[in-house]
């Protein structure tokens, strides 16, 4: 069973930065796509960033230019670097991976508040 474990969430002031990590229980090079989603209360889960096995990336319009997705194949870890954070970025952030079926992490809370 594939396991995805997120970490790095927390409380940050507006304008600050955070880096989320997603540790995967097996080689991430075997997954066709890795992604980050987020969900805040009362809203649908939305795609934040995704990366294909070939390295192509796509970002949500609201985070374009502020967030960056990356991966370290040697560590089987995917990252989400978040900069210039806004209160609207407050959400639970989920790691997602696809290899024949979708896999989700348990989520990590990010709160942007002064």
Task: Describe what you observe in this structure.
The structure is a single chain. The mean pLDDT is 97. The protein has strands at residues 4-7, 10-12, 18-24, 33-39, 46-52, 57-59, 67-72, 77-82, 91-98, 102-104, 108-112. By secondary structure, the protein is mainly β. The chain has no helices and 11 strands. 0% of the residues lie in helices and 52% in strands. β4 and β5 form a beta hairpin. The strands form 2 sheets. Strands 2, 4, 5, 6, 9, 10 and 11 form a 7-stranded mixed β-sheet that branches.
Largest sheet: 7 strands, mixed
**Number of discrete helical segments:** 0
Strand segment tally? 11
Order of helical and strand elements: EEEEEEEEEEE
Q: Which runs of at least 5 residues are low in confidence (pLDDT < 50)?
A: none
Oligomer state of the chains in this structure? single chain
What is the residue-mean pLDDT, rounded to a whole number? 97
Residue share in helix: under 10%
Please tell me how large the radius of gyration is. 13 Å
What key phrases describe this protein's structure?
single chain, 114 residues, mainly beta, seven-stranded mixed β-sheet, 11 strands
């Amino acid at each position: 069973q594939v396991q995805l474990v997120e970490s790095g969430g927390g409380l940050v002031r507006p304008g600050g930065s955070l880096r989320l990590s997603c540790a995967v229980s097996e080689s991430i090079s075997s997954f066709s796509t890795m992604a980050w989603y987020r969900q805040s209360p009362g809203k649908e889960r939305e795609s934040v960033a995704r990366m294909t096995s070939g390295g192509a990336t796509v970002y949500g319009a609201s985070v374009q230019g502020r967030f960056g997705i990356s991966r370290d194949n040697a560590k089987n870890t995917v990252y989400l670097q978040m900069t210039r954070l806004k209160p609207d970025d407050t959400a639970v952030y989920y790691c997602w991976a696809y290899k024949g079926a979708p896999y989700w992490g348990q989520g990590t809370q990010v709160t942007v508040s002064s």
